[in-house]
Write a structure and sequence with these properties.
Helix content: 25-40%
Mean pLDDT: 91
Low-confidence stretches: 216-222
Number of domains: 1
Number of strands: 7
Strand content: 15-25%
Strand order of the largest sheet: 1-7-6-5-4-3-2
Structural class: alpha/beta
Distance between the termini: 33 Å
Largest sheet: 7 strands, mixed
Radius of gyration: 17 Å
Shape: globular
Length: 222
């Protein structure tokens, strides 16, 4: 599906005190993400050699999502669970913020010459969410929004990207506005760089589930 035409805008990168302030404006702290990463790492470290080879990354993803949700729900400040079209997020309707956890590449979590990309090709639901990030409420006039949007779809979707390297987990919370030709993110509106987390033992980048186009039900005459 074609991406909406986009005028290039320079990405805003927040780091250090600016990142702390930007997160605070969203009702977030880096400690929530650290707790989620550590939980995911602890659980994935229990995976053994007899498990399927991809299972460790899947556990890392699922447990990170679960702990982030636990941290945010415990705040009792309006965070909720999003899963429209099986797209797992934490979201805050009033702040128009949804957070999805994805594996990132080696450019994740640092300011470098190349912008970060997802570790794996993204699917149709991510593409839909990114069009909402770019177009705002106008996106709901597009053909893919055939049904009234759910509360989590009304939010801007931020991506908590994680990449494991050198016994560390590098991470950032960033807002994408396009997918590249390779389907692994193209342009970013904002990137919030969060300090890396040192971990013991084998550290693995999360592996999120493949995205599947939601089924379409055609009702004909009997």
């Amino acid at each position: 599906m074609a991406q909406p035409e986009q005028v290039y805008e320079e990405c805003i990168i927040h780091e250090g005190d600016a990142a702390v302030a930007r997160l605070a404006g969203m009702g977030l702290r880096a400690t929530y993400f650290e707790a989620a990463v550590r939980r995911g790492h602890d659980r994935s470290s229990q995976v053994t050699a007899v498990h399927p080879r991809t299972y460790k990354g899947q556990v890392m993803w699922a447990e990170t999502v679960a702990e982030l949700r636990t941290q945010l729900l415990a705040l009792n400040q309006g965070w909720d669970l999003g899963y429209t079209n099986n797209y797992e997020t934490s979201f805050h309707a009033q702040r128009s913020v949804a957070i999805a956890v994805v594996g990132g590449d080696a450019n994740c979590g640092e300011r470098g010459f190349s912008p970060p990309k997802a570790a794996r090709r993204r699917g149709p639901v991510t593409a839909k969410r990114i069009r909402k990030n770019l177009l705002g409420q106008q996106a709901f006039d597009l053909p893919e929004f055939k049904e009234p949007p759910q509360d989590d779809e009304l939010c801007d979707t931020w991506f908590l990207m994680l990449n494991a390297r050198e016994n560390r987990m590098y991470l950032e919370l960033s807002l994408a506005t396009s997918l590249g030709a390779d389907g692994k993110f193209g342009l970013w509106k904002e990137r919030i760089l969060i300090p890396y987390i040192s971990l013991q033992g084998a550290v693995v980048t999360p592996m999120e589930p493949d995205e599947i186009e939601p089924p379409r039900v055609n009702v004909g005459r009997k």
